[in-house]
Write a structure and sequence with these properties.
The chain is of the alpha/beta class. About 20% of the residues lie in helices and about 25% in strands.
């Protein structure tokens, strides 16, 4: 019986994509923009806090954490656990399992605000960093709107702590 149990545990542990956070604690990394793009954004900013299915749909596989659409205004989608500073399960861009990554809202916002400020999607001159690093929160424009949705893309009340929303207006439209 012990041999059968041991064989089952070994089979599960060797399953592709299985990993423990302790075995790969800092494999999830991203980049900060170069200094010329890592500046306060001054346009209209809309931050959408949303669950993974919405991120996967709109970010089109580029990220499972966040993405930005610069334009007349800039729209940023952020995975809800990141906005809440919680830990979450995800996959890196190579499809390798990275489990129990702690959300780093400051890093995520600075990365995406770099795109709002014109940093190209191929991340030239990006400064590699880990989600485990401490990063200073960016200054958000007073015109920032924060919108929360569920997996069905229906607007919901944002029930997360809002100390990082300086002078923001929560909107449902």
């Amino acid at each position: 019986m012990k041999k059968l149990l041991l064989a089952s545990v070994l089979a599960i542990a060797s399953f592709p994509g299985y990993a423990r956070a302790a075995e790969r604690p800092s494999t999830y990394s991203t980049t900060l923009p170069p200094d010329k793009y890592d500046v306060p954004y001054t346009g209209l900013l809309k931050i959408w806090i949303t669950p993974l299915p919405v991120i996967e749909y709109f970010c089109r596989g580029g990220s499972r954490v966040s993405c930005a659409w610069p334009g007349k205004d800039c729209r940023i989608l952020i995975l809800q656990p990141v906005a809440e500073g919680k830990r979450f399960d995800t996959l890196d861009l190579d499809g390798k399992a990275v489990v129990n990554v702690r959300g780093n809202l400051a890093l995520t916002l600075r990365h995406e605000l770099g795109h709002c400020n014109g940093w190209p999607n191929d991340h030239p001159d990006g400064r590699k960093t880990s989600f485990e690093e401490t990063v200073t929160m960016p200054k958000l424009p007073a015109t920032t709107q924060v919108i929360c949705t569920n997996a069905d893309r229906i607007y919901i009340d944002c029930k997360i702590a809002k100390p990082w929303w300086p002078n923001t207006t929560e909107t449902r439209k």
